[in-house]
Amino acid sequence: CSGSGMGGSVYARQKGVVDGQVPGFDPALAHESYRKFHQAVNEGLILAAHDLSEGGLAVAAAEMGFSLNAGLEIDLDALPAEGSPGIVALLFGESPARILMEVDEACVGRLEAIFSDSRFAAVGRTSPAHSRLCFTQRGESVLDAELALLKDQWKNVLPHYY
Fold first, then answer.
1. Where are the alpha helices (DSSP H) in the chain?
2. DSSP state of 104
3. Count of CB atoms within 10 A of residue 124's CB?
């Protein structure tokens, strides 16, 4: 965890890591990403969104699924990650200026056009067929949990970590 850019994260605090490397930040790149996000919102493309600043992708995806209206299926191989981050960094990394967005499938092309010169990727989908949070990597399941159970843990176990 100390060399993975996870310093200061909820995960690092929970694991007792106090000397971890903090993720880098490029303010100009962040500003451009937020400008594009604002454009997508103004065009009505975004159904829901969540920043990844507290808990990373896994926590943001879980929180977005807590309505229990649909399950989420996310492919970690689709993430626009630099280098070879480990599974923990992919799931719980809190690098700044990242947003998980839900969009109608018919709008993905327009969103890709808006973010064409950015680190953007369609990484998953919602599924009305189940109410689980499912992450895969290289075709293998790395996390598969019932959203109702995660919501209970989030409400009753995790608050003291935040």
1. 10-15, 27-42, 56-65, 87-92, 108-114, 147-156
2. -
3. 20
